[in-house]
Amino acid sequence: MLAFLAVLPVLTVGVLLVGLRWPASRAMPVCYITAVLLALFSWKISLWQVAAATVNGVVIALSLIYIIFGAILLLNTLHESGGLRVVRRGFTDVTADCRIQVIIIAWLFGSFIEGAAGFGTPAAVAVPLLVGLGFPAMAAVVAGMIIQSTPVSFGAAGTPIMVGVSNGLKDSPAVMPYFEAGGFTEWTDYLAHIGVKVALLHGLAGTLVPLIVVIFMTRFFGPNRSVREGLAIWPFALFSAFAMTIPYMLVAVFFGPEFPTIVGGLTGLAIVVTAARKGFLMPDASNPWTFGDRKQWEPEWQGTLHVDDDEGPPPTLSIYRAWMPYVLVGLLLFITRMKALPLVDWLKAWTVTMPEIFGTEITAKVQPLYLPGTIFITVSLITWYLHRIDKQAYGRAWKSSLKTTAAASVALIFTVPMVQVFIHSGGGAADYAAMPMVLASGVANVAGQAWPLFAPFIGGLGAFIAGSNTISNMMFSLFQFEVGVRIGAEPSLIVALQAVGGAAGNMICVHNVVAASAVAGLFGKEGDVLRKTCWPFLYYALITGIAGLLVFLLAMPGT
Fold first, then answer.
1. Rg from Cα positions in the chain
2. Is the C-alpha dihedral spanning 499, 500, 505, 511 positive or negative?
3. CA–CA separation, 548 vs 265, rounded Å?
4. Cα 287 to Cα 78, 92, 214, 227, distances in angstroms
């Protein structure tokens, strides 16, 4: 019964958003109230703790809104300068085929941005760029969400492993015997040991991600609604997958968890763009696949953010100047996340903190200069000068961006506080563990020896709830480790399955979907996005869970 109560907020999200197709701005207030009532009357935590968790959630939501605004502003700045039309023409020169474009932008460029910044930034960069290239808003959002899988575990220079798993396991009495038995002398070596398993599992499941993205484009948004048109480019899709995942796995094995996604994304981008220019494994250039005439698109595909070919000034910019803003975004995200550089400490020095809110242990913290939104706005200002945009046109970019961002705010202001109440529901008068842990324990009791199959789903549940692979790993890594010990499995394998599932859970994370939809100007259709992205999540969690279960069974004595 307790596990059923714990799952109620998650079920409410699923029923209202996916089942009844309510817009997030309407559904999430109901979900927030559900979580609050459970926390107060079943878990019996204090009203002050609920209020503190809510305030912390609002602070996080405002940070997300700031990132969304910056991403939209950059896109609108490029639109006003004519740079977006040049970028679109540049991609058309490589290929006019949207199936290839989505692989290059979402899978490869998105992977690099994930490796550099993490925390949903790829969607803020890739989704509006795809919309600017002529993709339907919903197609862009779905593509941006599906690739939030393989790259995520090593995003933000390995934060989900180096911070999430580390904080979840470090100094635990249950972990130290295995750490010592493995002959590890440094804690980072044990994290790297887990990271290798994570990379290999991702390499297995990630092989089909580019092809899945393309199939979803052609099946749900193509003129012919055809799976076959997506399957037609399987050689190029698999080549693009290996171009990223092979260097990704090699870096994880030989250099550790900080740089697999950054190196994999950049290497894959260089290899695949070069191959596409030379026509290697490319589809017939005389018949490129597109989304067809915009007039034939379904109304629910389209958002308020779109850029038509016949709008804006003539494209007089060079391709290099047009692309420079995105180059600057990638460069600035990379150098501001490199811990070896002093810039990181300088940007983090200005920290706005609300310690022990309302006398609880909950502390809200935000570092405005370190947020990706600051980089987007900075690059927008540089682009204003670099592209010589007049003040009136630049003012239009700001006005339009503020209007679009405001429309996303209502859903996020309720979504993130709901998540925070859910996470901080432990320690009440009822003496129950927090709701996510109660739910996971209930699944573990049912699963028994088959737990490796379920471990990625618990990681995904954590990301679905918290909106972060890092937070999912913090919540569940020790729990997963202890379940592994209980069933006689290698605990580091179970933790790796947790990390992989937590990465894939970003595909179905509600506030990531809301944020990605917002940057595309797609409002009220978040449930439709989730109805599509839940299938690739199930594939990802199931294939890695089966792999983990097979490894566990083969390692059992007498097998």
1. 23
2. positive
3. 26
4. 29, 13, 16, 17
Q: How far apart are CA 504 and CA 484, in angstroms?
A: 21
- 530 phi and psi angles, rounded to 5 deg: -65, -35
Alpha carbon separation from 167 to 188, 473, 474, 477, 506 (Å, rounded): 12, 8, 6, 9, 20
Q: Name the residue among 201, 118, 136 with its Cα closest to residue 470.
A: 118
Neighbours of 406 (CB within 10 A): 12
| Contact present, 153 and 503 (Cβ < 8 Å) | yes
- Asked whether the CA dihedral 479, 28, 542, 166 is positive or negative, the reply is negative
Residue 247 and residue 267 in contact, taking contact as beta carbons nearer than 8 Å:
yes
Is residue 65 within 8 A of residue 429, CB to CB? The reply is no
- Among 1, 12, 4, smallest CA distance to 465 is for 12
3-class secondary structure, 182? coil
| Tally of CB atoms within 10 A around 395 | 12
Strand partners, 294: none
| Cβ–Cβ < 8 Å for 245, 150 | yes
pLDDT tens for the chain, 559 residues: list them: 888 888 888 888 888 887 888 888 888 899 899 999 999 999 999 999 999 999 988 988 888 788 878 878 887 898 888 887 787 777 777 888 999 999 999 999 889 888 876 767 777 778 888 988 889 999 999 999 999 999 999 987 788 898 889 878 877 788 888 888 888 888 889 999 999 999 999 999 999 999 999 999 999 999 999 999 999 999 999 999 999 999 999 999 998 888 899 899 989 999 999 999 899 999 988 889 999 888 889 888 887 765 555 455 556 788 888 888 878 887 887 788 676 777 778 888 888 899 999 999 888 888 888 888 898 899 999 999 999 899 999 999 999 888 878 876 777 788 888 878 888 888 889 999 888 888 888 888 888 899 999 999 999 988 887 778 888 888 889 889 989 988 999 999 999 999 999 999 999 988 788 888 888 888 888 889 999 999 999 999 999 999 999 999 998 776 5
How much of the chain is in helix, strand and coil states, percent to nearest 5?
Answer: 75, 0, 25
Query: What pTM was computed for the model?
Result: 0.83
**How many Cα atoms are found within 13 Å in the side-chain-facing hemisphere of 439?**
25
The Cα angle at residue 525 between residues 17 and 533, in degrees rounded to 5: 70
Residues 6+ apart with CB under 8 A from 176: none
Residues across the chain: 559
